[in-house]
Amino acid sequence: MALSKVLAERLFTHETLVHAISGAAGATVAMSLFYPLDTIRSRLQVEEGRESKSIVEMLRDIMESEGFEGIYRGLSPVLQSLWCSNFVYFYSFHGLRAVFSTDRGHSAGRDLMLATIAGVINVIVTTPMWVVNTRMKMQGAIAQYGPHDQENQSANYKFRSLLDGLITIYREEGVHALWSSTLPSLILVSNPSIQFMVYEALKRRCETLGIALSAGTAFSLGAISKCIATVLTYPLQVVDYRDTHFSTPIKEQRECGACWAFAPTEVMEAMRFGFRSAKVEKIAKSLSVQHLIDCSGVSYGCKGGDVCDAMDYLIATDYQFVLEADYLPYSAVKHSTCQRQVTPSANITIGQSTCEDFSKSEDSLLSFIAYHGPVVASVDATVWKDYLGGIIRYNCDAGPKNHAVVIAGYNLTHSPPYYIVRNSWGRSFGDNGYMYIATGRNLCGIADKITLLYPKYN
Fold first, then answer.
1. In angstroms, what is the C-alpha Rg of the chain?
2. CA gap 52, 59 in Å, rounded
3. Domain endpoint, select from 149, 180, 211
4. Catalytic: 403?
5. Which end of the chain has fewer surrounding CB within 10 Å, N or C?
6. Residues 67-73: contacts with CB within 8 Å, 24+ apart?
């Protein structure tokens, strides 16, 4: 049978269209009913400074400050996008299922493959819509800075409609911004794909055993399949090197501008433990930042400096890291000479270092963090002094770089997805020394200048 005839008879059918419309309509109705709760969830995730945390209090606060419109802000474009997204997914899945059907029926493996393909098609087609929806929903949200910082008190996106948002982002940020969350979305495709496969397999098993598929049974199968999918895909969606085994205690550079030394040292601590010391040490050990400042030969000291240049110098001189316990405690000053000659005890050096610009390909940066480990990011931290908590998702420009931090992971299950950033301003900063920056928009210039360190073990 010719391919065109197969497509005409199986892909473009009334049954496939009914499945797609039913799926889209069901999702749209459900979202319309529960949209206020979704708005509250998004606000609580972003506005951690709010005193009111309950659903009722949040509803009251939003309606008092923004009116009834506040709890339904962005509903229209969300419904449009949700309709398109579910229509594309269900049509793609059931259409492909019909095309590849055989006399032997359907199998779990085939369902997984087809669900994944349908999910990928859905992501590619509808990602720009969800980028606009996320920004529209947060119009009116409070930024996570100090109360005196009036300039950053509200999001500056005022899109009138879904189409207006698409056009505005395209004009002001370029076409790549519309697909900025493609990789996180593609990774998340695996979750519903596995869930659907497991659900279909369990449903077929029930049919084989003669168990009627009642509402309660269907609910139970759905819950079981979701749990299995989450367990299997969670490691891909959340990478977090803050685990106490990998991460040393948060450091505080104080008035010394030696972030150029702190960030690389902290990356090397995680690398050292993760790739070698875990066999003999139960937790990561701190390396000496003070030794790096005093004894490496890098002249920056407490005056600030370029991380890339500093790492090139350390490689050229084969600098040997030492454990913090073997040298002087950190004193926030650069001594004129190395204060103590010690035998390099950490058994690690920087074998190779490269500096890359990931501003146009943050998806590649996420992949590197997942498969390689923490990285050093040179950032514009001008507004960070007012950071109180939550996720920075706007009003943090990619200006001149004035600070260096560690990207210690990411979370793609959150809305919006975010980087986990380790700072060197003490535990009183942010979330016990960490902060969170939304992925996909190069906020604070976080992806402009990434230093990738490759350790060499002695």
1. 26
2. 10
3. 180
4. yes
5. N
6. 70/39, 70/140, 71/35, 71/36, 71/39, 71/40, 72/35, 72/36, 72/39, 73/39, 73/136, 73/137, 73/139, 73/140
Q: What is the pTM of this model?
A: 0.62
Provide the CATH number for the domain around residue 285.
3.90.70.10
Per-residue pLDDT reduced to its tens digit, 98-155: 777 765 666 666 777 787 888 888 888 888 887 777 666 555 444 444 444 444 434 4
Tokens of 178: 């519309």
Helix H or strand E segment including 15 = helix 14-46
Last residue of a domain, one of 111, 145, 180: 180
Catalytic member of 19, 94, 291, 403: 403
Q: Environment class of residue 247 by beta-carbon count within 10 Å: exposed (0-12), middle (13-18) or buried (19+)?
A: buried
Sole residue written with tokens 């400050």:
65
Range of the domain at 395: 259-457
Catalytic site residue 423?
A: yes
Kindly report the CATH number assigned to the domain that includes residue 68: 1.50.40.10
Q: Which candidate in 259, 295, 396, 444 is catalytic? A: 259
What the block records as the tokens of 10 is: 């199986």
Residue 72 in any domain: the answer is yes
Is 279's pLDDT higher than 90?
no
How many domains is the chain built from? 2
Within the chain, how many helices (H) and strands (E) appear?
Answer: 14, 8
